[in-house]
Write the structure tokens for this entry.
Amino acid sequence: MADLLSIGLSGLKATQVALATTGHNISNVNTPGYSRQQSVQQTNLPQATGAGYIGTGSQVVDVRRLASEFLTSQLRSATSQNSESQAFLGQIEQLDSLLSSTTTGISPSLQAFFTSLQTAAQNPSLVAGREAVLTASQNLASSFNTLYDQLDKQNSLINQQLGALTGQVNSMATSVANYNQSIAAARANGSEPNDLLDARDEVVRRLSEMIGVQSVAQNDGSVNLFIGTGQPLVVGSTPSQLQATAGQDDPSRFQIQMVTNGVAQNITSQIGGGEIGGLLAYRDTVLDKSYNTLGQVALTVSDTINKQLGQGLDLSGRPGTNLFSDINEAQAASLRVLPNTNNTSNVSGVLNITDTAKLTSSDYRLDYDGTNFTARRVSDNAPMTVTVSGTSPYNLTFKDAAGVDQGFQVQLNSLPAANDSFSLQPTRRGASTISSVLTHPDQLAFSGTVNAQATTNNRGTGTIGQPSMVTGPSPVNTADLQRLFGANGVSMSFDATTNTLNTGNLPAGATLSYVSPSTTALVPGQNNTLRLNYTDPVTSNAYTYEFTLSGIPQSGDSFSLAFNSTGVSDNRNALALVALQTKPTVNVGNTQTTYNSAYGALVERVGSLTDQVRTNSASSEAVLKQAQDNRDSLAGVNLDEEAANLIQFQQYYNASAQVIKVAQSLFDTLINAFS
């Protein structure tokens, strides 16, 4: 009877464990990361008798956790990729909306500015048209400033997010280390801590939402976590710490450091995956490029318009002044050179732009080894040839492998210490520094500097066109032009014998040449292009003017070129300003293009990337769902299945109870037989 009773009791105990396990599954159906459990039952050791071995019941030998490390790892990887895509998408969609908006975009403001110029050019003496140009220039500068501010806010928000996310990563890394310690202790006691394993796996999964992480299982049940290219985040029960700090090369761009045993290591470039990886990837591939391209367009607009204005005359006959702020204003130039925070010297520098047509939308890195300067272009890591001239200050110019000048020079107040480095940002802040500085509409230089006319008593049909300045200083020097043309201008008389123009009063430094259709003489009846070159003997300023002579002049017909001191109704320089809208002035991939095309290329690039990221995000969501479903198919709790188990185990329990009842009845019968 005792054996039968023991068998019944063993069945009750085993069924109790099975019922408890099922109840545990049901109660944790909504617990994140929970893996369903299953009791593992086996027979007790049988008892040997003369008739053979007789069973002694059953026992529960394990409560098994239904989990697969492979499926868990798949889910962790899919989670990391999806979080990275979502973070990238959230940022780039904001930028795409900003760049293409009719409110914050640059294209509408550029169009409005050149429309105002076209209107003013139709009546250059009208002050109202000139005032409209000033207003449009203010709006254009404001559009650049506003868009830069929005980019800067996005950059600041990314910095804040990096700081918050690293804090969360540190908290979870500490949790994993604590779980490792508890799990190792439980394993050492011969137990399998299923719920601790689930809790740790869930923390690692949530950690993968923030940063890409690799998990390596250890023999004691703990896991070591690695990020980036193998940097240890958790080793056993010891976590490392991440911190987001101001960048060594650029304080406005936070970098991620790993602190292990008090030693900090910059791992920003090694990090991938998770929300942190998505933010860093967006900043490196999209935001920085947008900063620089926007600044490049702003600098080119400022520079080319200011230079063109400087080659004309205003209503008072004075050289044109800047409409926009000087691109090499002292503060702006100093902000383009950022010393590395680890530099041992206090050397500072300024970066002056020498040719906006050669600027690229890239940053540069400058290093000094104690003897030589080396530099590279960050966008493509191309090495630069650095040429140094002067001493205190030292002037540095940069050319690529093909010998192409990069459009800027750097001036350092002294030589740096060995291993010092500098971040050079020629265009990064260009959109923030542009401003409209001209306040008097009469100072807009709409007229040309030289006036041409034919003598009234000429006998032929020769007609001279108004000269245009091909090259010259900006602003022009009126003293130079007065020395060139004198009080009465330069007189040119046609000689029908040689088909040439005789210039008896050209000053020293001036030459007249024929450009087309012949380079030696005029061709009567055709449109002839002539060129006047002049190098001023006092200032050494060089000027080149071109003009046309058409029709059929007669011998002795004369023409003159004179300084245009009273060109109130002259709109030649205004038309030259309007022509800048369609003139290739911006360097994009070693090809010159227009303002609108350069900005449009930025908008198109961001738009294309946005579409691509949307597609990638949708794909990563599908992969994540599949990975979650695969994991849940094994480890997820199915309430229908658990309900069936409850009924089954209840029946088992009742049956075991019946075994005990039969044993009790037999025992009672045996006792009664001896009474």
Q: What stands out?
A: The first helix runs from residue 2 to 27. The mean pLDDT is 93.
